[in-house]
Design brief:
The complex is a heterodimer of chains A (550) and B (225). Chain A is α/β, with parallel strands linked by helices. Chain A contains 16 helices and 28 strands. The chains are: A alpha/beta (550), B alpha/beta (225).
Chain lengths: 550, 225
């Protein structure tokens, strides 16, 4: 047990150079903010063309001018080094001292960075196929239609032809305010043209953004017709002839219309460089290829690794203003992490270098990429989140967690399991402090009926619940053991509850072999606000075990 | 590394039947790396044994110790002051370690808690695959780094045999044909001429206990003896 080291403070020097990956509006803003905060910046644009991405997001002309000015400022900023069109090959190191290898303009460059900001763009995909449509001059995507409206000649052709334009939105996917805004801008243009008409076939109208409700209403008042349908209309494309038929729930009748042009919705998707970046940076990929998992414990812009931040459309579909508020959040986090480049940190987990057999289990299990190795495992104090998954998995018990060392846990288990409560069954509940422990405290505070023989043992994460602890609680005299973790997909350390579940299943097998009833051990998931559920779970266990005793 | 797996619990129970004080001895090298017999597993096995004995009328007691390597006398020596307190030693090391522990403390019964299964590699946490049979006649230089002794069901030094079927071995379609893999690896490296060369056969009669003395240490061995 290496308790002596646990309260030591470690002095760390951090690089004050910050890498920004992605040269779109979020990347430019990030580079400019970081530079203004006195740090050096390595800016690594991933694409050639910022204009395209601005169009995708329906950015106004005035905003585009501001971004162009920003681009110019960043290009002339002495503190910003731009690596044009670069690819990140590899990233190593820990927060404060990452080493990044880029390929840029045919050369391989190695750069150090205290923190990495991923600010990639979004891309747009057409969805004709889902409606059974083939792209044609009269069947176009929203982007293509925007281009038609932007060019003098095609715009005039639409106007002079007094075209009827049908928009299909929200049937192929849930949609977003960002996409709705672009559709409504087109609708607004069409209803403004003399003799033209706009029909919008729409499922849910997404107006949760500044001015969108107003834009929607203005279009309607100017003559746009919205058909709000539960399912997509049937569209038949026969050469030039387009037929849209559907059941109108308002007039309760089948309706058939023949528009001149169909504008088909699109979907905003993650930047195609995201997967490669995730691999190089060892960060998790979330839904749809965006770089943040859906996790209520994640603060905005946090990835699963300390020191690697994901902003703007790198983490979800975002418009300009939310992207830029991401940049503000990122700046706070970078300043808190890097400060002036020197920091004292307390180790949350310590490796006993004599015991470590460098099996790499900890390195492979750490959800935060906090572990590397020299001739033994090394845990970065800055990167470690103190979940304890590594400590529970280490086959040599060589990793000890501050305040939760094996010796301390053994004492707590012994005390809890031997606590006498007359004839009441003794129940030891291992509780994750992010959920079940809070729920347990709340259950006490709210005066819920709880078993007399219940003892809570707080753990930093369910991932810290070693199978040895579970068996030991029974050895020490507990009649029942509960392992209470966060809900699936809700673990602050991503996999702590999963590891706990696996260990419980392993423990069930072992209990069966030693002849102990399986129902003396139970795994449940809770959230911190589930005090009454907590009470129900522990009372149920007390009843079950009481029957055995009786 | 040497890979081992825990014996079925009932078998362990059977082995230690009748012994009242048992020391569970772990090994901090190969069997720790393959998550079978390091300090953690020693604690877990000992907790299981304690649980079984909770209800026994005449319960046995269990101690725990883990040494760096059970295949080194110097590390086994660390146990000398405590082994006397026990009726039996339950070793979680590989077969070599177990035997060396028994050799170091010949007066005490040494029992195995694990089965040694192979020499293998670590594919992921808890996932190991066999790669070497320790045949004493390495052909990897000829075979593109793929061992035909381990990977071929017939351990052929010159293959493939007539049982190669598409990419599989005749014994099982999920078992890839080793010589097919060797062919592909050699082709990739432009070394296909290797497959024509005859690999001299291993002298399987020579499968008696082996001793190795590294060159340069022969004189030391003589001097020590």
């Amino acid at each position: 047990m290496n308790t002596k080291q646990q309260n030591d403070m470690e002095k760390v020097n951090l690089s004050t150079q910050i890498a920004v990956i992605g040269g779109g509006y979020a990347g430019l803003k990030a580079a400019s903010r970081i530079s203004a905060n006195g740090y050096n910046v390595i800016l690594a644009p991933q694409h050639n063309d910022t204009d395209n991405n601005l169009a995708v997001l329906g950015v106004s002309a005035a905003e585009t001018d501001r971004i162009k000015a920003l681009e110019n400022d960043v290009a002339n900023d002495q503190n910003v080094e731009i690596l044009p069109l670069s690819t990140l090959l590899e990233a190593s190191g820990m927060p404060g001292n990452f080493t990044l290898r880029f390929e840029s303009a045919g050369a391989v460059l190695e750069k150090s960075a205290g923190a990495v900001v991923v600010a990639t763009d979004t891309a747009v995909n057409p969805l004709h196929q889902i409606y059974g449509l083939t792209p044609a001059t009269n069947v176009v995507s929203v982007s293509e239609f925007e281009n038609l409206l932007a060019s003098e000649t095609t715009r005039k052709a639409i106007e002079d032809g007094k075209k009827t334009v049908a928009f299909l939105v929200g049937f192929a996917h849930e949609g977003s305010p960002l996409l709705m805004k672009r559709v409504l801008n087109c609708v607004s243009d069409i209803v403004g043209m003399d003799g033209c008409s706009a029909y919008v076939y729409v499922n849910n109208i997404k107006v949760a953004d500044d001015g969108l409700e107003r834009l929607y209403t203005r279009c309607r008042n100017s003559g746009a017709i919205y058909f709000k349908l539960q399912k997509a209309p049937t569209v038949i494309q026969e050469n030039e002839k387009l037929t849209v038929s559907f059941y109108d729930p308002v007039i309760r009748n089948d309706i058939e219309l023949n528009p001149d042009i169909i504008v088909c919705e699109e979907v905003l998707v993650a930047d195609n460089v995201n997967l490669g970046l995730a691999e190089a940076l060892h960060i998790d990929v979330g839904p749809m290829g965006f770089l943040q998992k859906e996790n209520v414990h994640r603060l905005p812009v946090a990835s699963n690794r300390e020191g690697i931040f994901v902003v703007g459309s790198a983490r979800e579909v975002q418009d300009l203003s939310t992207s830029w508020s991401d940049v503000d959040n990122m700046m706070l986090r970078v300043r808190a992490l890097i400060g002036d480049g020197e920091k004292s940190v307390a180790a949350k987990a310590v490796v006993d270098r004599e015991k470590c057999t460098i099996c790499l289990t900890c390195y492979r299990c750490c959800p935060h990429g906090a572990i590397s190795w020299d001739d033994k495992a090394v845990i970065s104090s800055l990167a470690c989140q103190g979940c304890g998954i590594c400590a529970s998995e280490c086959p040599m018990d060589a990793i000890q967690l501050a305040d939760f060392t094996d010796a301390e846990m053994t004492d707590r288990i012994k005390a809890a399991a031997s606590e006498s409560a007359a004839n009441a069954p003794k129940i030891v509940a291992f509780c994750c402090q992010n959920s079940a422990y809070e729920a347990g405290l709340a259950a006490k505070a709210f005066g819920h009926q709880l078993p007399a023989g219940l003892q809570l043992i707080q753990v930093p994460c369910a991932g810290k619940i070693d199978i040895h602890y579970i068996l030991n609680a029974l050895v020490e005299g507990a009649d029942g053991v509960l392992v209470l973790a966060c809900h699936t997909g809700n673990c602050k350390s991503e996999f702590g509850n999963t590891y706990a579940k696996w260990r419980i299943n392993d423990a069930y097998q072992k209990l069966e072999q030693v002849g102990i009833e399986k129902d003396r051990l139970e795994f449940k998931t809770l959230a911190s606000n589930m005090a009454s559920d907590f009470a129900r779970i522990v009372i149920d266990m007390e009843k079950r075990i009481g029957q055995k005793k009786g | 590394m040497i890979v081992a797996e825990r014996k079925p619990f009932d078998e362990i129970k059977e082995l230690i039947q009748g012994y009242k004080k048992v020391l569970v001895v772990g090994c901090g090298t190969c069997v720790a790396v393959c998550l079978t017999g390091g300090e953690k597993e020693v604690g877990v096995l000992s907790a299981e044994l304690k649980l079984v004995n909770k209800t026994a009328s005449d319960p046995a007691s269990f101690g725990e110790a883990t040494v760096q390597r059970q295949c080194d006398f110097e590390f086994l020596d660390e146990l000398k002051d405590i082994v006397g307190e026990y009726d039996a030693l339950l070793s979680m090391a590989c077969g070599a370690g177990i035997q060396f522990l028994a050799e170091r403390y010949p007066e005490i019964p040494v029992l195995p808690a694990v089965d040694t299964v192979f020499i293998g590699v670590n594919k992921d946490v808890g996932w190991y695959e066999e790669r070497c049979k320790a045949c004493g006649s390495c052909a990897l230089g000829m075979t593109g780094g793929i061992c035909p002794v381990t990977m071929c069901a017939k351990s052929l030094f010159n293959g493939p045999c007539g049982g190669t079927n598409q990419e599989s071995c005749e014994i099982n379609k999920d078992q890839p044909c080793a010589w097919r893999m060797i062919y592909e690896r050699l082709a990739k490296q432009g070394r296909l001429d290797n497959i024509i060369k005859i690999c001299p056969p291993n002298d399987w009669r020579n499968q008696k206990p082996q001793t190795l003395i590294q060159p340069g240490y022969e004189e030391r061995k003589t001097a020590v003896e």
